[in-house]
Amino acid sequence: MSDKVTPDFVCDGEQSGGFSEAVCIHTDKIYDQCRDKDCLEDLRVYLTPCGQEVIDCAINVKIRKAEVIWVYSDIESVPFNRGFYSVDLKFFFKITLDAFTGVGRPCPVYGLATFDKKVILFGSEGSAKIFGSKYKCDSLDPQSWKKTNMPKAVVEVVEPIALSCKVVDVDDKCCCCCDGTDLSAVPEDICAVFDDHLIFGGDRKRVYVTIGVFSIVKLERSVQLLIPVYDFCIPEKECIASTDDNPCELFERIAFPVDEFFPPTRFCDDERFSYQSLRCDGEEE
Questions:
Q1: Element (H, E) at 110
Q2: Measured between alpha carbons, how far is 270 from 87 in angstroms, rounded to an integer?
Q3: How many whole angstroms separate alpha carbon 282 and alpha carbon 187?
Q4: 0.85 cut: is pTM over it?
């Protein structure tokens, strides 16, 4: 069995792998995480009164883009599963639409779409209370509010991909217009993103969009970890002020943008599409 490593300087750098010291740090450790690719179909877009009037008169509507405003997360322990937690997520999206009314350019319309999701991750056990203070010279130290080492959820999400959009007539018998979203539960900070209040009913047409979302959900805890240290990270690059150089000399350092004039037919280091990775090695499909 190998000897236990303790925080201290390491005398034999070769046997230790080159690092000079083992130090104890306080950081957030990822206990569990998952990634997902969700295709969210037929999300209703809630509009402002002005935007709803434009949609009611539009002959065609297209989705331009979707943006993530905020992701609300709530953690609860899973009964009869020690160390596991359910993470309830609510995504808030700002949807930008192009409404074609038949006259002039398309009119931009903005609305809100939401999506609920739940994942179960391992977050371990432990419920220590943490207290702290900050040093203040010649005075009482400010006290930090009580904290715990309970797991916290971290959500990473990229901007959604706008896939499709459709307009449904409320009076259509084939339309299922039963939406369970309660706009009164939407936080004020989310509603403040739009120029006016959002409406739930009284509309003749409703907009539904389909978007693609890539996300990563993590459960982290504040812990102490022992890590190897090689040395202090001292910057060696000097700061260069661009104003000291001649503008033309600075321009001469910029490489000619060949790809802008001659777009590459493929990217050999891009594995997002399987057919590219198959053809980059020179073999035929």
A1: strand 107-122
A2: 33
A3: 54
A4: no
